[in-house]
């Protein structure tokens, strides 16, 4: 009797252990699939911990002068430049944590960021980027170069930046600066 | 055809003549007028006419077009924005497109009163005009200068003052070398453009025509900016470079003047006044006049 009971108990215990192991493995698997949604799948390595941080510089406007001012920020480090560059743009939209002015309309959404081999980053914004922009030469210049400088400054492989709206080329933001070209950085606009 | 109004019944006498231009002419009467019809050998001439003495003598000057084209020199003034595209907007509702038109119309008057240039406006009323068409208008009119008038706007509340821009090429070193070559051979560029200009109706636009005129454009920008500084006593924001769409295709010295900040409430109020608009027009005119005295043959 006792032996029989022990065998049954033992079997139940083993089954429980197996169930627990299976549960955890599957749960872990789901987690991995979920976090694969945000970074581009081709660059994601599930074995690495994706939560490592990295310092980057964003460029904002100041009331004091006409220059662009650097502000340090942390983003999630990733082997994917596209993933990191997207975070830079999203932080830029989020605005300054000091008293700097953000030259990007806060309603703007980053739709996509492409980085083909040619060193040109294609940054695609939602229509609010243009629709809610306060048109004017100085405003357009600061918007364009806060984006361009923030990307080229942080990523050596990004040489030029092409700005798209709703997936397409626009002539200008509000009638001034030419958006039909890939912009080189303008480091002369940065405050020393 | 020239219509001559007269109350005196005129007798018509015919004399024989010889001319390179004129094949024949004829007089006909219509009510109180005489209609003079001149038939030319070819279409390439222009004319001027006036009367002298009494009994009045009618003098008609005919000139071949090629000579005429050298004589007529053109400045194109571009009032920024227009129509549905109103540009930047001030806190009190002042629109950039209104200010730019007001200043441009005054500038045209001042230039034509004082200089032997005709002024062509890219728009003379509140209509839409594509940026490419503005550059093409300058090129088709063989403009000697192109001046675009704008009012500025910034995210910075404190932003104030005038700025004069010329085009920045946004070129890599390699591209810049090629464009420098283009600039050195800008005379050749003009020849090439002439050659391509067979079709008169066709709008002409060269993708990066402005590249050949950057040096002159920077000189023009300096001269206009220093006049703005004196006349308006505004903070000197100096001359600047940026990739402005409207300047890209212009095949002559070209600048864009940001007169003042419509986003600054004090300057917005000023921009709306006739006095300020006149002052700006005067300052820009002075800059243009200095440039022409120094650099035009």
Helix-strand pattern of chain B, N to C?
Answer: EEEEEHEHEHEEHHHEHEHH
Structural class of chain B: alpha/beta
Low-confidence stretches of chain B: 191-205
Order of helices and strands of chain A: HEEHEEHHEE
Overall pLDDT of chain B, averaged?
Answer: 82
Percent helix of chain B: 25-40%
Q: End-to-end span of chain B in angstroms?
A: 36 Å
End-to-end span of chain A in angstroms? 86 Å
Q: How large is the share of residues in beta strands of chain B?
A: 25-35%
Coarse morphology of chain A? elongated
Q: Going across the biggest sheet of chain A, name each strand in turn.
A: 3-4-5-6
Tally of helical runs of chain A: 4
Oligomer: heterodimer
The residue fraction in helices of chain A comes out at 25-40%
Q: Which pair has the most extensive contact? A: A-B, 27 and 35 residues
Trace the largest sheet of chain B across and list its strands. Answer: 7-6-8-11-9-10
Quick one: how many beta strands of chain A? 6
Sequence stretches where pLDDT stays below 50 over 5 or more residues of chain A: 27-42
The number of helical runs of chain B is 9
Shape of chain B: elongated
Biggest sheet architecture of chain B: 6 strands, mixed
Keyphrases for this structure?
A: alpha+beta, 4-stranded mixed β-sheet, two-stranded antiparallel sheet, about 20% strand, B: about 300 residues, 6-stranded mixed β-sheet, 9 helices
Concise summary:
With 192 residues, chain A is an alpha+beta fold. Chain A has helices at residues 2-35, 81-94, 128-131, 137-154, and strands spanning 53-61, 68-76, 110-114, 120-125, 160-165, 168-169.
